[in-house]
């Protein structure tokens, strides 16, 4: 079997080229490596592919935008984002960015490759839209219970009048209506943590990981007892994920929530589809928030996604000789960087594979 040929087709690509990406030197692997531009297909963090470079392609020093690579997916994207491509000496390249269900930009799609780019242009992705919330109604949620029939003295469970919507780790404030008496074990206006939660019942603890508080029912049936979830910011169809870094902003003339500073960054913790808590550190303690003096004009904004472009063309990317070459495109901090390694130098390559975006003919 021939080790390679001089025609630009997969079946003539260098048989032993897959060893450069730690694969067996088989025709199937060589065919898969031929023309590959997909990141991580062979080695995590890079896009590697083998290309045949003819003498004409070897002399072309500018081209279109060949690839776009996400360098940071950002956070908090609730919709697709606009992409702007500028610089590099060329023009007319366009793209769009697709957001996924976790608030990340998952794909940057090239919609027009443009032309005459001599260097990699700058790619800018629009920032995510700020997510607004009401500093009163979106900051607390109430669940009521009967102080006699809703309190189990032996299991320490409190059963709420309806499904409470709380989860383990939520912070709640116990409130007793004027003229009523607090149940045993709890104090009016004190803050507690939810543990042992199910749909309509829960236990309370003094700390997030503490033991259930020994609660005692009142002797007579009594309403007017409330567990109010504080500090949890309600966001419909929330896409923020735990660990996301967000900027809190309050409109000019409004008052920031106690515990937060407008323009400062915080981390998302204990996120779910209906909202999240904020923390000063990644995975840290929840910041205790009190309802705001001004209800509207409060928002959270995620991080802006970034991407890099790669321009086609041979001399400006370092192709040393016509022949079969291994092309490597970096990702992350090396996104947009291209390296060519000549595996087999040849005087001529016949035919022309469909690689004109990567190796233009003019």
How does this structure look, described?
By secondary structure, the chain is mainly β. It has 3 domains: 111 residues, no CATH class; 74 residues, no CATH class; 75 residues, no CATH class. 3% of the residues lie in helices and 34% in strands. It is built from 2 helices and 21 strands. Strands 7-18-15-16-17-14 form a 6-stranded antiparallel sheet, with no helix packed on it. A 6-stranded antiparallel sheet has the order 8-13-10-11-12-9, with no helix packed on it. Strands 5-4-3-6 form a 4-stranded antiparallel sheet, with no helix packed on it. Strand 11 and strand 12 form a beta hairpin. The two termini are 34 Å apart.
State the major sheet: 6 strands, antiparallel
- Taken in chain order, the helices and strands follow as HEHEEEEEEEEEEEEEEEEEEEE
Radius of gyration: 30 Å
C-alpha termini separation: 34 Å
What structural category arises from helix and sheet content? Answer: mainly beta
Strand proportion, as a percent range, falls in: 25-35%
